[in-house]
Structures are given as structure tokens and as C-alpha cells.
Amino acid sequence: MKNLLLFDVKDLGFFSEEVRKYVADQLTVDMLKRFTLPKPGQVDVTEQVLLKLPDKPHLAIMKHVTGCTEQCPICHVPCDNMTRQHEKHRAELHYPEGVVGCATGPHGRLVCSICTSIVTTDEIYYDGKNYKKYKNHQKDFPNWIIQPIQNDSPIKYWQWVMNRFNKDFAQLYDRREAELPRGWTKITKQEAIEDLRQAYATNTRAEHSSRN
Q1: Angstrom distances, CA of residue 205 to CA of 15, 137, 152, 163
Q2: Residue 196: which of 22, 31, 20, 24 has the closest Cα?
Q3: CA distance 128 to 73
């Protein structure tokens, strides 16, 4: 039986507005943040997790404060487009879905897959009303372009985050801890930070080139 991935939109709105001031001083204007208010009772746990993250990109790295504010309906990554005048949204660096509470069923294990990979499979998710296949994402989310890439993985930074805060995320979402690929557990904090910086520097250059 295929894994049943639980995707509940209400699980995405848990970030503390208070984290903004910690973030703005750490990253460039291309990595400004936007956070939504947490659920009641989750503020303390969320802040403890977010404030421990090196370079503090958290789950909402924005390409520009005046850019697009739309977020991936699956993993909540912000749209990469730096202008508001566009019909289709996209993101190059999706997050592991376990970061936003996606699991193998109610109270199941958090999952490590990212959107670009899971849309190539027959896995299904629950949108709060119906069960749907990720491969039909273009029908379900017509305004988002998610490039299918088989066996794609998140950048090392998010692999490190999933390993470092696996237990915290499980407690936050009332899920079981994710079963992580072995390589994810060997990534150091410094390797994670360097990979994050390189990834977003490359993505920013590509974005500027596409606009010129």
C-alpha cells in the first residue's frame, strides 16, 4: 500500500511574528522573512526550534521584501519571482515536507521528500476534504509550477535541520520522528550553512540573469 501523506493546510501557519527581528540582522535583503502567527500553545516550541537555526532562514526565505508573497501549497516555500506581476509561481529550492508536518498518515512519521521529487510518484495527500495524487498537482495547484525531478533531495542545510530538529518537529506536529537517510545524519552544521549560502547565491544569480 502506498504511503498516505497527511497534508493539512492548517499545519502551516505556526511561525512567530516575533522571530522577524532576529532574522533581519542575520541575512541579506534577498533572504528577508515573512512569518504567520502560530497556533495557540505552539509559540514556545516553535521559537525554540527557529532560534536555534544557524543563519536563521527558517521556513520562509523571501527573495525580496517587495517580491511575490505566494508560498508553495505543499511545503510553504516562497515563490522565487521577485516581481508581483506574474501568473505562475515557482521555487527552485523546496523544503523537506516533514518541516511543515507532512506525515505518513495521522500521527504517522514525518516525511523527508520534497515537492520536486514526490510529484513524480503515485503518493497521495489529504487536503482536508479529499485524497489526491501529488502527480496531479498541476490540476490541484494551477498557479504553481513544480518541476518534476526523480529522486531529488533538499539542500544539505535542510537535511541538517531535519536531522537536528527531528524530535522537535515530531513533538510540534504530534507526529512520529522521520526515518532519515543515513547521509543526512553526517552533515555538520558548518557544511549546512555553507551549502545554504551557495545555494541561495546561485539561485539569486539565476533569477537576476533571467530578468536581464
Answers
A1: 28, 28, 22, 29
A2: 31
A3: 13
DSSP 8-state symbol, 93: S
pLDDT per residue as tens, the chain (212 positions): 244 444 443 333 333 333 333 333 343 333 333 333 344 444 455 455 555 555 555 444 444 444 677 889 888 888 888 776 788 999 988 999 998 888 887 778 999 999 999 999 998 887 778 888 999 999 989 999 999 999 899 999 899 989 988 988 898 888 999 999 999 999 998 898 888 888 776 655 555 455 55
Let me know if 96 is exposed, middle or buried by CB neighbors in 10 A (0-12, 13-18, 19+). buried
Instruction: Calculate the CA 107 to chain-centre distance.
Output: 20
Give the global pTM. 0.67
Distance (Å, whole) CA 172 – CA 190 = 26
| Those residues with Cβ within 8 angstroms of residue 126's Cβ, 6 or more apart along the chain or in another chain | 4, 5, 6, 7, 8, 132
Q: Which of 192, 166, 165, 189 is nearest to 179 (CA)?
A: 166
Compute φ and ψ for 46, nearest 5 degrees. Answer: -60, -50
Domains of the chain, by residue range, sit at: 4-211
Query: Cell numbers of 127, please?
Result: 487536503
